[in-house]
Each structure stands twice: as structure tokens, then as C-alpha cells.
Amino acid sequence: MSKKQILVLGLESSCDETAAAVVTADRRILSNVVLSQTDAHAPFGGVVPEIAARAHVAQMDRLVDQAMRQANIGYDDLSAVAATAGPGLIGGVLVGLMTAKAIAAVADVPLIGVNHLEGHALTVRLTDDIAFPYLLLLVSGGHSQLLVVEAVGKYRRLGTTIDDAVGEAFDKTAKMLGLGFPGGPAVERAAATGNPDRFDLPRPMKGREGCNFSFSGLKTAVRRAREKLGDTASAQDIADLAASFQKAAVDSLMDRVRHALEIFAEDYPDSRHLVIAGGVAANQYLRDQLDDLAQSCGYDLTVPPPSLCTDNGAMIAWAGVERLNLGLTDPLDLAARARWPLDADADPAPFAGYKA
Ligand code: KG4
Ligand code: ZN
Q: How far is the CA of 51 from the centre of ligand 1 (A)?
């Protein structure tokens, strides 16, 4: 393959997916290999940082090799290598970033440190070529944010969680209901046969000013409802509680998005684009509700395919392409960051930690 074509290798290792992908500047995904560590964490009902870091070390080289082979290219063909440099579990982030540094040094190509959230935020430009600016609902296991994506590297945060992320609430609900890990898909499956109106659960932040989220109160309400059901809870009871939780969480998200759309419409009147990204965007009930809301407000909803909503290397490689196009490369001594807000000017949300 000729070096004239822009080819970026992207590595992701900030949570419990080890991933590598090769993407071109003209939006082709030549390879996208994702290895989920689900089985390793399942016995603990959540991601264990030390186990995650060790698994990334064990797998990253092999995945990079696989991604390069599938793309049918050699290291000499690369234009740059991008890796998630934060935010996330620092042990894992270090594995991907160090691997990328080694490849950059040996292949003599630029290194690009990507903010994991920027990877999620720019994915729709890879899949659908959406123009700036757009309003983004970013919903994952680590984050719940409403952001205006103004340009590469330029984000305005309209809202964030003040405690838990929505994906975290799905995961904890699944654990309380004995539905397994990862929780989001398990809750969605159980909810499909449940009555969403049986349990009267709170809609956190609904009707409140601004666009911030909160999910810890909802989580506590689910725990109380589960305790009340006692040891004799039937599969139908569990399905009803899963459905009631899903409806409450999505209702709360919708209220926040409605506020954000009002602000966005006023400040960016020329854009009609609403986008969702992050693992929770794989949830069909959320997609349907958001689609209805977008249409009623005159917006187009764009959602990447589920495999590009959950963590993957293609989103990091694509953010690398966007940064490379602007000459935004990094030195080989770039530091990994556990915390790294996309909008450095946003007000702090002290109880949200790295999630803000
Ligand atoms: O973006 P992601 O892969 O990793 C993070 O950066 O956190 O998101 C993972 C999160 C998990 O909390 C998972 O339970 C949730 O996304 N998730 C879902 C669904 N699929 C994944 N939540 C609700 N419904 C789903 N179908
Ligand atoms: Zn993510």
C-alpha cells in the first residue's frame, strides 16, 4: 500500500476492552479488533482495575498484530499511531499509550494521545460525516454528559453527572437484580418482558434547571424496591423492576436533553444535529425515545452502530485522523491522565470525580 494514503492505527485500553483498529482519512475502517474482558470481571460484578490492566498487558500486542494483518498493511504504511491517553483506569491507559509510543518510535511516525471522550464524540464524523457543531449526549459506564461539539478539541459542556454515570446505574441495577455483567444489555433484555409502570421510581433532576444528571438516588430506590420484594421475588417481579428502572433512567435523560436542546437551539441556530455516543447508546429504548424527542424539536438524531458506540479502537484511530489533519501530534513523553475533562472551562462537579 502506498504511503500517500493516510492510515492511522488506534489503540484503546482505558476500561475493560482491549482494542486496536486501522482507519483511513477517507472514513474506511480497515480493521477493528475488540477483545472484551467481560468473563474476567463477571465474577466480581464490575470492572476490577488490576485485572483489567494485566489483561491489557497480556493481549495488546496480539491485538495490534491482528489489526495490522486484517488491514493488510505494514508498520511502514502508517501515517500515525493514536492511543487513548485518558481519562480512565490508569493502569490500562498506560498499556495502550506505552505500546503506541513504542510503535511510533520504531516506525518513526507521529504519536497522537486521544481523550477517550473525544473518541466517542467524533465517531459520528467517521460513520456519518456530520458537520460541526452538534449536540452530543455521551452516555457510558464512566460518563453522562451533554456536550456541544464545536470543533476537534473544542467542547462546551452543558451538563454532567453530579454522582453516578447512567451506565454505572444500569450495571449496579443488574447486579442488585442478579442479572449478570455487563449490566446494560442484561437490564434491557429483562426489561423487554417487564411492566415499566409497576414500580414508582424517582426521575432524578427532572424539572430542575440546567442539564446536569444524577443517578445515585434512582439506584437507591431500586435497591429498596428489590429488598421489599424479598427472597421470593419471581422472574416477572425482576423483569418489572428492570423495566421500571430503564424507563425512569431514560425519562430523566430525556428531560435533561430537552433542556440542552433549548440552549443549543438558541446558541447554535444553524445546526439541526443531535448525536448519541457511548455504550448506553446501544440501548434501543433510549434510541427510540430520543428519536421521538429529536423529531418533535425539529432535529435529526444520528447514532453510530452499536459496535462503534461501545469502546473500540476505530473511534480512537478516527480521532487520530482528525487530529493529524490539524497537525495536532504529541511528544513521546506524553503523560497518561486518569482525569481529563473535555471542557476544561466547565464548572467542577466535585462528587463525580473523573466522570466529570
Ligand atoms: O462506552 P462503554 O463501552 O465504556 C465506557 O467508556 O464506560 O460503555 C459501557 C457501558 C456499561 O455501563 C454498559 O452496561 C452500558 O454501557 N451498556 C448499556 C447497553 N449496552 C452497554 N446500557 C444500557 N443498555 C444497553 N443495551
Ligand atoms: Zn467509552
A: 19
Whether ligand 1 lies within 6 angstroms of the CB of 88 is answered as no
Q: Domain 7-122+308-340: which topology?
A: Nucleotidyltransferase; domain 5 (3.30.420)
Pairing of strands 111-115, 80-86: parallel
Q: Is 331 helix (H, G, I), strand (E, B) or coil?
A: coil
pTM exceeds cut of 0.90: yes
Contact yes or no for 122/132 (Cβ under 8 A):
no
Give me the amino acid identity at 356: A
Q: How far is CA 356 from CA 70, 144, 164, in A?
A: 36, 8, 10
Q: Counting every residue, how long is the chain?
A: 356
Q: How far is the CA of 13 from the centre of ligand 2 (A)?
A: 10
- In the chain, where does the domain assigned CATH 3.30.420.40 lie? 7-122+308-340, 132-303
Q: Decide: 170 in ligand 1 pocket, CB within 6 A.
A: yes
CATH level 2 (architecture), domain 132-303: 2-Layer Sandwich (3.30)
Q: What is the pLDDT along the chain (356 residues), one digit of tens a residue?
A: 545 799 999 999 998 889 999 999 999 999 999 998 888 887 877 788 888 889 888 899 999 999 999 999 999 999 999 999 999 889 999 999 999 999 999 999 999 999 999 999 999 999 999 999 999 999 998 889 999 999 999 999 999 999 999 999 999 999 999 998 889 999 999 999 999 999 999 999 998 999 999 999 999 999 999 999 999 999 999 999 999 999 999 999 999 999 999 999 999 999 999 999 999 999 999 999 999 999 999 999 999 999 999 999 999 999 999 999 999 999 999 999 998 999 988 876 766 666 66
Pocket test of ligand 1: the residue of 288, 303, 310 to mutate, having most ligand atoms within 8 Å of its CB, is 310
